[in-house]
Each structure stands twice: as structure tokens, then as C-alpha cells.
């Protein structure tokens, strides 16, 4: 058995000694059977939250109304969730009522996909009433029970299905896929935050190309924020070497293909963190410029290294080249820069006011910008005296609109 399960065995044992059942469940079992790295070990039990609290001295209520208690044991924390059944999904989102039950099989029945509905006891024995192992073997994603019904209960499961395609490279069972097409519109009931969270996981998966194809094919893509008309853009993305891009770069590729009037507005629809929105929209601007012309040192200086690399990586795959081919020359330009940051410029606005005997105003910013450009282009040395002398050759303060 895997080390992470072994460490948690004392918890299962304690629960059993108190007269209840306890199993490892969910993603950790799936990943263990697939021989993939395990994220967190989740535990399911027949004991109610109150009963769990009476067994363990150190617990934290994280979602007690859903039956989840956090237990701290040997410096690790574990989520222990009471077996439950969910019924009456009135709003396609939250179960109308959570019922605590004593049957493992019923608990597994409410889980999304057969591969996620496998349990293991502390002796390593598997309970698999919905044949999840057979699906793992066939590398197939299939809902527990009728797909139509399961997606109607909770439409987020559709995004989860596609995200698992990206993470695992599995195929969709035909009925599950047909139900995606039929029920895609139900995604309107799911909060953007939850959709975005699944999409971000999708972007990090190694099989994102297949995932994009399914999003487009099933019509799920039209339900994504700002993507009502985005099917073709998504399909175009799959024609490129998406595998060579990281998450930010994939967002940039999507932005480029979507070409929204205002990238900031598009990203806001996804409710991404504002820092990320700002960064990605600056990349979108930069990529548009890059499509028109080669980098110059002053342009790279403004854009900064990380952003320039992200832009160039996407530019490369748009040109059907590999980022590896293009990035070294950018790196070289960065290494050639005589200054790395604005703060290194030896002249300040106060110096300029002094030398020109002029009050502060927008001219200072423009002049400093031109000085920065000239330093970067090695027209003048970054030395106060040299800059003062160079300025004297100009009849008035230099201006830069760059
Ligand atoms: P990950 O490795 O990304 O954590 P996971 O399968 O563990 O994948 P979680 O969101 O951690 O996903 O959920 C844990 C388990 O809870 C799942 O394996 C599944 O059995 C069940 N589950 C989660 N979300 C749903 C849902 N929307 N509907 C039904 N069952 C769900
Ligand atoms: Mg998990």
C-alpha cells in the first residue's frame, strides 16, 4: 500500500474500533490504482460528524453540514466525510438535502464517475460496486448511473469530466459524451468560480488538446464565460502545439484566437484574480505588437523578462515553431541590456528640473523615457555627467512617445 494511505491507517482503525466503518475513497484511490501521484487522502465513514468528534480529540469543522470533519493526526490533516446520499437537486447545483447514511455502496452511488467511486479499506481491499476498475483499465470516463440524470443533478460534473480527460488522457464513454451534448446548457446554473477552477485544472493537464476538442464538439464551450461564439477559436487553438505552453501562455493563446474587443473584459467574465487579469491583458497587447514587428531592446525593457518569454512562446507556436527555437535570442537581448531596471538610471526628474530650470510637468516623464531609450540603445552612457552633456546637444528636452 502507498505510504500516504499507510500513514492514515490508524485513523481508520480508531473509527472501526469505535464500531463504525471507514474507507479511503475518491481521487486518491483512482490515482493509486493508476499509479499516479496521490493528492490528498480522503476518508469516508459510517460514523456521523458528532460520532467522529467523540472519537478524535483534535478536529476542525470544515463542512459539517455536508458531513465533513477535518482530523489532525501525526502532523497530517485528513478530511473525514460521513457516508451520505444526496437527493432532490432542485437547482442543478446543491443537493436539496444531505442525508447521512450507513451504507458505503450508497455513498459511492452519489459520486460522479465510476473511477471516482472506488473505496479501499485499511487492509488494502477494494470495494468497487460500480466497476470503476474496469473503466480505469479501459481508460474511460463513465458516470455512476445514467449520465443524463447525473448531469441534471449537478452540471459541474460535465466540466469535471472534461478536466479529467485533460488530466488523464481518458476517453469519454459514448453515453456520457452524448449527455454532455444534451445537457451542456445546464452549465448556466453553475457559478463561474467553479467553472473557472475546473478550466484551470484542465489547462494544467497534459491532454488539454483532447479536452478542448470535447469542449468544442459537445457545445460545452459555448457555455464558458465570454465564449458563446468561441467554438472556432477553441478548435483553432488545438491546431497548435498547445503542449509546449504553460497555463498563462494557454490563456494568451485563447485570448489571441478569441480576439475580444477588450481582453480585460473577457478575462473579468472568468472572474480570474485581478492581478492575473492585468498580467494576461498586458500579454495580449504585447503579442499583438509582436505579430507586427521584431523585439527591440527598449520594447523588451518595458515588457520585462517573464512577460516577454510568455509572449514569445505563444508567438513561436503561432509561427509553428517551438519556443525553444525563439526564446534564446530574447534571452540574449535581455543579457545585453546595460540597465535592468528604471531605478538604475542615474538621472532623476529633479535633475532635469534643475538643468532646464523648468517646473515639473508631463515633459519630465517623456524626457526620462527618451533618456532610458538612449541608454538602452547605447547612444549615451548611464552616467550623470555624460547624460547632462548629451542633453546639451538637444535644443529642448527630448521627448519620447514610445
Ligand atoms: P482531484 O485529484 O482533482 O482532487 P478528485 O476526484 O479527488 O480529484 P475532488 O473534487 O477532490 O476530486 O472530489 C473527491 C471525490 O468526491 C471525487 O473523487 C468524487 O468521488 C466526489 N465528487 C467530487 N465532486 C463531485 C460532484 N460534483 N459530484 C459527485 N461526486 C463528486
Ligand atoms: Mg481530491
TrEMBL record:
Residues 246-391 form the CCA-adding enzyme C-terminal domain. Residues 169-228 form the tRNA nucleotidyltransferase/poly(A) polymerase RNA and SrmB- binding domain. CTP binds at residues 27, 30, 111, 154, 157, 160, 163. Its EC number is 2.7.7.72. One of its GO terms (molecular function) is CCA tRNA nucleotidyltransferase activity. Belongs to the tRNA nucleotidyltransferase/poly(A) polymerase family. Bacterial CCA-adding enzyme type 3 subfamily. Homodimer. This is CCA-adding enzyme.
Amino acid at each position: 500500500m502507498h505510504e500516504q494511505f499507510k500513514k492514515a491507517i490508524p485513523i481508520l482503525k480508531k473509527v472501526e474500533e469505535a464500531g463504525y466503518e471507514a474507507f479511503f475513497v475518491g481521487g486518491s484511490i483512482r490515482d493509486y490504482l493508476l499509479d499516479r501521484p496521490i493528492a490528498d487522502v480522503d476518508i469516508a465513514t459510517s460514523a456521523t460528524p458528532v460520532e467522529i468528534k467523540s472519537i478524535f480529540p483534535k478536529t476542525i469543522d470544515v463542512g459539517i453540514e455536508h458531513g465533513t470533519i477535518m482530523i489532525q493526526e501525526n502532523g497530517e490533516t485528513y478530511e473525514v466525510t460521513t457516508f451520505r446520499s444526496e437527493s432532490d437537486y432542485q437547482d442543478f447545483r446543491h443537493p436539496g438535502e444531505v442525508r447521512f447514511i450507513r451504507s458505503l455502496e450508497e455513498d459511492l452511488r452519489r459520486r460522479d464517475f465510476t473511477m471516482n467511486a472506488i473505496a479501499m479499506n485499511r487492509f488494502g481491499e477494494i470495494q468497487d460496486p460500480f466497476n470503476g476498475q474496469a473503466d480505469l483499465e479501459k481508460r474511460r470516463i463513465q458516470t455512476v448511473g445514467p449520465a443524463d440524470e447525473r448531469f441534471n443533478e449537478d452540471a459541474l460534473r460535465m466540466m469535471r469530466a472534461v478536466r479529467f480527460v485533460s488530466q488523464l488522457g481518458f476517453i469519454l464513454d459514448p453515453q456520457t459524451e452524448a449527455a454532455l451534448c444534451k445537457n451542456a446548457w445546464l452549465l448556466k446554473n453553475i457559478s463561474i468560480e467553479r467553472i473557472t477552477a475546473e478550466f484551470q485544472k484542465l489547462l494544467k493537464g497534459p491532454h488539454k488538446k483532447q479536452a478542448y476538442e470535447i469542449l468544442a464538439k459537445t457545445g460545452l464551450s459555448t457555455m464558458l464565460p465570454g465564449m458563446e461564439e468561441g467554438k472556432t477559436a477553441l478548435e483553432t487553438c488545438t491546431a497548435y502545439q498547445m503542449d509546449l505552453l504553460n497555463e498563462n501562455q494557454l490563456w494568451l493563446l485563447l485570448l489571441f484566437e478569441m480576439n475580444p474587443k477588450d481582453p480585460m473584459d473577457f478575462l473579468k467574465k472568468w472572474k480570474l484574480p485581478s492581478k492575473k487579469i492585468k498580467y494576461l491583458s498586458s500579454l495580449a497587447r504585447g503579442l499583438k505588437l509582436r505579430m507586427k514587428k521584431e523585439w527591440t531592446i527598449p520594447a523588451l525593457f518595458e515588457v520585462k523578462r517573464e512577460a516577454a518569454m510568455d509572449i514569445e512562446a505563444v508567438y513561436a507556436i503561432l509561427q509553428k515553431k517551438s519556443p525553444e527555437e525563439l526564446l534564446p535570442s530574447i534571452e540574449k537581448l535581455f543579457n545585453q541590456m546595460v540597465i535592468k531596471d528604471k531605478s538604475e538610471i542615474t538621472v532623476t526628474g529633479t535633475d532635469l528640473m534643475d538643468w532646464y530650470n523648468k517646473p515639473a510637468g508631463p515633459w519630465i516623464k517623456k524626457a526620462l523615457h527618451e533618456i532610458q531609450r538612449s541608454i538602452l540603445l547605447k547612444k549615451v552612457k548611464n552616467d550623470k555627467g555624460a547624460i547632462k552633456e548629451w542633453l546639451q546637444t538637444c535644443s529642448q528636452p527630448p521627448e519620447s512617445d514610445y
